[in-house]
C-alpha cells in the first residue's frame, strides 16, 4: 500500500511538472487617429437664365444645356440671348471626391407681376449628377447646371420677369 501511494505521488509529480499554464486572455495597446479636413462649400458663380423669348399660341420648351447652349421646341421664338447655365464653385479638401444631387422634380419660375408660373424640369449638370462624380483638383471645381423650361401660350405666360430658385446638394463621399 505504501508502495502504491508512493507511485501515485511520483506519477502526480511527473504529470504536474510537464503541464503548462494556459492563459485565457491577452491584452494589447492599439493605435487610433482622426483627421479633420476642410469643409465642403458651394457658392453660386452665375445664375441660371433661360434668356429672352416669346411664347407662341401653343408654347413649347427651352432646353438650356450645362454649357449654356439653348435649343427650342414647340412654338417659342428665341430673342436676344442673355442665357446662361447655373454655375457653382465647389471648394474643399484637395483631391477629395464629392457627389452631386440635382432636384428630382420641378421648380417653378413665377411672374413677379401676376403670379403666373413656368415649370423647370429635366435637370442636368457637368460633371453629371451622382456619387463620387466630382474631384476637387487643387481644392476646387466648377459645376455647371442646365434644365428645361416648360412654356405655355402667351395667355398662360404673359410678358414679365419670372423668378424662382432650386436646390442642389453637394456632399463629400
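-> sequence recovered:
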Amino acid at each position: 500500500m505504501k508502495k502504491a501511494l508512493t507511485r501515485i505521488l511520483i506519477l502526480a509529480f511527473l504529470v504536474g511538472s510537464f503541464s503548462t499554464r494556459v492563459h485565457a486572455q491577452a491584452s494589447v495597446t492599439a493605435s487610433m487617429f482622426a483627421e479633420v479636413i476642410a469643409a465642403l462649400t458651394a457658392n453660386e458663380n452665375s445664375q441660371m437664365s433661360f434668356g429672352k423669348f416669346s411664347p407662341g399660341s401653343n408654347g413649347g420648351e427651352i432646353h438650356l444645356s450645362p454649357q449654356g447652349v439653348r435649343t427650342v421646341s414647340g412654338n417659342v421664338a428665341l430673342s436676344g440671348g442673355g442665357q446662361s447655365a447655373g454655375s457653382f464653385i465647389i471648394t474643399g479638401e484637395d483631391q477629395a471626391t464629392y457627389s452631386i444631387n440635382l432636384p428630382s422634380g420641378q421648380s417653378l419660375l413665377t411672374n413677379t407681376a401676376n403670379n403666373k408660373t413656368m415649370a423647370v424640369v429635366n435637370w442636368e449638370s457637368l460633371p453629371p449628377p451622382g456619387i463620387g462624380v466630382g474631384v476637387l483638383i487643387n481644392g476646387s471645381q466648377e459645376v455647371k447646371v442646365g434644365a428645361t423650361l416648360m412654356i405655355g401660350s402667351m395667355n398662360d405666360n404673359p410678358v414679365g420677369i419670372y423668378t424662382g430658385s432650386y436646390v442642389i446638394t453637394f456632399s463629400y463621399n
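The mean pLDDT is 91.
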